[in-house]
Design goal:
single chain, alpha/beta, seven-stranded mixed β-sheet, 8 helices, about 30% helix, about 15% strand, zinc, metal-binding, hydrolase
Length: about 300
């Protein structure tokens, strides 16, 4: 019997995100870029996002404190977002609803017995190992140890992804990237967004005060997905409960906005940098430098 990987493309990318909509804001351009290029893109989402803030008034009663049905609604939003990005392989870690959204750090929801923050690390990682063994991705993307900005589910997603890669051994990804944003780009964004009503940097005077941001030296890869900016925008609109119509994400369309949202940056956590170009020596392809044998799905 043929293995699943025998029918998959040579290049296979796995992304591990915490909630529905996280995949779009941080990696949507890269996902659309690689899906359009023929790579197999697998998205693993760790929770249903039950504790998310609802930006559609008519759906306010779905929130956790009322009907507690937001998670089920966001499953559909995620399906639509993946379709917009051209991604056909999406899974929930351990199955839909296995782990609950933990809410922001320090809230009582962090103590919910089913929340992802309370998940047993090896048990959660074992669910991801099964997917890794099936798909055999050469490249995996997740968050840095702080979950990019400190959300407990993002931190846990990092821990689970890194532990799963360790447990997978030789079947694990050869390269692991963490999402990142250069401080230089953030500084440019602060200046560009200053006049927006929904300025995401309001009250921030210095980029060093933000809970995220990397130096140019820490960045390993820059993926230009500006050709797929429209797909990323469509995917964001699919997450209507989480991203309001007046969001700054739409307010910067075109010009600097296309650059800010269409280009995504990554730090390399595992593996060797491949051939690079440009003034910073950044990779322009996450698969750069991988051997032909490692990209053969029928290989050992």
């Amino acid at each position: 019997m043929a293995r699943v990987t025998d029918a998959l493309p040579d290049r296979r990318l796995l992304l591990v995100h915490a909630h529905p909509d996280d995949e779009v804001t941080g990696t949507g351009a890269a996902m659309a870029h690689y899906a359009a290029a023929g790579a197999h893109v697998t998205l693993v989402t760790c929770t249903l996002g039950e504790e998310g803030e609802i930006h559609v008034p008519d759906l306010a009663q779905l929130e956790a404190a009322q009907a507690d049905q937001l998670g089920g609604y966001r499953v559909v939003e995620l399906e639509r977002a993946c379709a917009a990005l051209g991604v056909t392989d999406h899974r929930f870690l351990g199955g839909a609803g296995r782990y609950r959204d933990s809410g922001m750090m320090g809230l009582a929801t962090n103590n919910h017995p089913r929340c992802f923050w309370q998940a047993d690390l090896d048990e959660a990682a074992s669910h991801l190992v099964k997917i890794i063994s099936e798909v055999r991705p050469q490249v995996m993307i997740t968050y840095d140890p702080n979950g990019f900005y400190g959300h407990p589910d993002h931190i846990q997603a990092h821990r689970v992804a890194m532990r799963a890669a360790e447990l997978a051994g030789d079947q694990g990804p050869e390269k692991i990237y963490w999402t990142a944003m250069p401080r230089r780009v953030l500084a440019e964004g602060m200046a560009a967004f200053r006049e927006l009503d929904d300025n995401p940097f309001a009250g921030v005077e210095d980029v060093a005060d933000l809970p995220f941001g990397s130096t140019d030296e820490e960045i390993a890869a820059r993926i230009d997905g500006t050709d797929h900016y429209d797909k990323k925008t469509a995917a964001m609109r699919a997450h209507a409960t989480q991203i309001p119509d007046n969001s700054w994400l739409y307010g910067i369309a075109g010009g600097f906005g296309a650059e800010f949202m269409g280009v995504e940056y990554f730090r390399l956590a595992k593996g060797e940098r491949g051939p690079a170009s440009g003034p910073h020596g950044w990779e322009s392809d996450l698969f750069a430098g991988l051997s032909a044998a490692r990209t053969d799905p029928a290989g050992p």
